[in-house]
Amino acid sequence: MKIIWSKKAQYNFDNIQNYLEQFWSPLIAQKFIKDVLRIITLLENNPYLGKYDPKLKCRVMIISKNVTLHYETTEDYIELISFYNNRQKPINFI
């Protein structure tokens, strides 16, 4: 199944990666990237793996204890909506 990254998902991903490289270490940032790629591979094989959240009207998948992926599925593709840093305020994150 085709994976489509929204602009917001790409922006969130880049911000999280840059933050990890700057304030943690390049190794932690690489682990984050690996985890995201692993989850995307899992979603390609089973798009309904994440839990559906009726409030957000999308599926949610935990990447790590601090990052959650929000995505939508259709018959043809999976759209990554956003990567959400769980430590931030829950205001308009999608």
In short:
The protein is α+β, with helices and mostly antiparallel strands.
Describe this structure as you would to a colleague.
The protein is an alpha+beta fold and 94 residues long. It contains 2 helices and 5 strands, in the order E-H-H-E-E-E-E. It has helices spanning 7-23, 26-45, and strands spanning 2-5, 51-53, 58-64, 67-73, 77-85. The chain has a 5-stranded mixed β-sheet with strand order 1-5-4-3-2. Helix 1 (7-23) runs antiparallel to helix 2 (26-45). The longest helix has 20 residues, at 26-45. The radius of gyration is 13 Å and the shape is globular. The two termini are 23 Å apart. The relative contact order is 0.21. The model has no long low-confidence stretch (mean pLDDT 91).
> Which overall shape is indicated by the principal axes computed on the Cα atoms?
globular
By DSSP, the count of extended strands is 5
Order of helices and strands: EHHEEEE
Strand order of the largest sheet: 1-5-4-3-2
Query: How would you classify the helix and strand content by structural class?
Result: alpha+beta
Report mean pLDDT, rounded to a whole number: 91
Q: What about the largest sheet?
A: 5 strands, mixed
Helix content: 25-40%
Task: Count helical runs.
Answer: 2
Instruction: Report the portion of residues in β strands.
Output: 25-35%
Give the termini distance in whole angstroms. Answer: 23 Å
Residue ranges: pLDDT <50 for 5 or more in a row? none
- Please tell me how large the radius of gyration is: 13 Å
